[in-house]
Amino acid sequence: FGPSGGISVRLNNRPKAASTMTRRSEKDAIATEALVERAKRGDNRAFEALVDIYKDKIYTYVLRMLRDPAEAEDVAQDAFLRAYQSLPKFRGASSFQTWLYRIASNLVIDSVRRQKRRQDGGVSLDAPMDTDEGQMARELADEHRGPEDLAESAALQAEVAEAISQISPRLRTVLVLYDIEGMSYQEIADILGCPLG
Predict the structure, then answer these.
(1) What are the distances in angstroms from CA 117 to CA 103, 121, 122, 169?
(2) Closest by CA position to 165, among listed 154, 153, 176, 155
(3) pLDDT for 54-85, tens place per residue?
(4) Own/partner long-range contacts of 98-101 (Cβ < 8 Å, ≥24 apart)
(5) Cα distance between residue 19 and residue 16, in whole Å
(6) For the segment 124-149, what is each residue's pLDDT rounded down to a tens digit?
(7) Do 76 and 56 form a contact (C-beta atoms < 8 A)?
(8) For residues 108-124, b (16+ Cβ closer than 10 Å) or e, as one string?
(9) 18 neighbors 60 (Cβ within 8 angstroms)
(10) 49 CB burial (10 A radius; 0-12, 13-18, 19+)
(11) Pair 155, 148: CB distance under 8 Å
(12) 108, 66 contact by CB (below 8 A)
């Protein structure tokens, strides 16, 4: 990561809509495994390809947990940096995606702890969502819908965001990973390091 020939990670501030993300096919999983193996052998282009595959997903997940776009971008970039640094230790016991989400989840928890210690009124997992909900509604909206439908959709999104902000961080993580990211319970258990039950 840097001008001395390392890889460069640049995240977009505008993630793709989570609803457009679909579960990866077996072919995609095999291609990802091949990229991981190449990256483990020092192929920086392979790691950059992995970043391209996962950057929007990781950013969206972190943003939903932290509710601060600038902090979410920093945490997401740090997740990729740590993944790059730890890649030689990646054994493949879980999928690369699961491993990457686990890194991001740990960094989210660290970020929340730092914010609580500072007690500067910063972002908290229990704070109301502080993102441009109108912008999110426009990104997720079907362009064929009328103004009334868009207004109802924005209002519903605001209600859902408020409801999500009221549940515990651990349950919120499960909800975001399952309903929004489309992960299985087994993947979520692996990410959180807890039993499936």
Answers:
(1) 21, 10, 10, 17
(2) 176
(3) 999 999 999 988 888 999 999 999 999 999 99
(4) 98/187, 98/190, 98/191, 100/54, 100/58, 101/58, 101/61, 101/177, 101/183, 101/187, 101/191
(5) 9
(6) 444 444 444 444 444 444 556 677 77
(7) no
(8) beebbeebeeeeeeebb
(9) yes
(10) middle
(11) no
(12) yes
The beta-carbon contacts of 187-195 under 8 Å, at least 24 apart in sequence, are 187/95, 187/97, 187/98, 187/101, 190/94, 190/98, 190/102, 191/98, 191/101, 191/102, 191/105, 192/102, 192/105, 193/102
Model pTM greater than 0.90? no
Q: Look-up: residue for tokens 């990457």?
A: 100
- HSE of 137, CA atoms in CB hemisphere, 13 A: 20
Q: What's at 162, amino acid-wise?
A: E
> Long-range contacts: 26-34, Cβ < 8 Å, 24+?
29/95, 32/95, 32/96, 32/97, 33/92, 33/96
Helix ranges, the chain (H): 26-40, 44-66, 69-86, 96-118, 133-140, 147-165, 169-175, 185-192
Residue in this structure with the two tokens 């997903």, named with its chain if needed: 57
Query: What pLDDT does 9 receive?
Result: 59
